[in-house]
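=== How it folds ===
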Amino acid sequence: MRKFLILAASGLSLGLHLPAARAVVLEQKWKAGDKVAYGMTLSGTVNLQAPADAAVLWAGIPLEVDVHGQSRTVVQTLDVDENGTAKVTFKVTRLSLTGESLGQKGEFRLENGAPRLFLNGKSLVLDKGPNGPKPAANGAGVVPKTDPANPPLALRLTRRGKVAAIEPLQSPVAEGDITHPEADKPTTMGGALNRTAMAQAMILRALPAMWPDHEVNVGDTWDAVVSWPTVPGTAAPEAAQAFTPPTPLGQFKLTLMGTDVIDGHTYYKVGLDGAIALDQAKIKQVNAAAMGAGAGLGVLTTAKQSVKGSLLFDAEAGQVKSGDFAVSAQVAGRGRGTQDHPGEESWTDFTGTIKLERQIDAGT
């Protein structure tokens, strides 16, 4: 009995002197010249319906497609300012996305910087005619005008993972300066490219900061709020001089769940659970902003997304190590059309999983 009491007292004394779990700062540690590669795998089901007037064989027909994908993206830090905000590019060096439906198997593949399309193993090229893609005469199957390995934009990302700015990496192209072969010209020339870039910029600016602005302990939570940015010129004239706050679209709750030790290195496990769901009032504002910016030709009618999962964060390196997420998304819209002829409706929804893994060799 005496030995038990002595051991118990010793254990209590040691316990009182054990260090408490330390708070941790979760933030990106950008370093100029760094390259980090991430592999991504995607698996799930897409239900979709193209507009009835679309130039594809399945126009107006609901389809269910089993999709699987793999990609490799190199994240390169070009420079970092005194506040820790970095200029970062994302280059897709490898991509394979397959879809199977109605006994047919299509694949989009990125090989050596060249995007290619395949149907049941045969190369395709895009055809502007009513029959959509057709077999390539030369077997190349190269899709024109696309170069995912050389992105036109760089992002200014803060230590908290927030997009602070979008910067062009390539010189702007004037409306009349595009010199593609006749069959390869964009339908609306430079204007379409400018509208697409504007839409991409607006979406990126809507993304929230991922990391909190303070230390956190295991069990702590913080919110990442998704807000659609206000676009100059889209407010009503009488409100033009007033500040218009961004439109809140949804939020994600993040939780520091604990730590995982892998190969002797400690990683912090962060849970993520949240959704974006636009009501009609928000959709109206988003459409007004998009039209004011000249982005796209359609009108959004429904937009929902939910994400639940977790990621491992390397606090020492200031990098995400891996992530595993269940994703559900629904988007519906219609062409703008006219008062007498409303635009045709279309919709897409996805349910599946997305996994992310940092790779040791970033390469180029």
User: Anything to note?
Assistant: The mean pLDDT is 77. The longest helix spans residues 189-206.
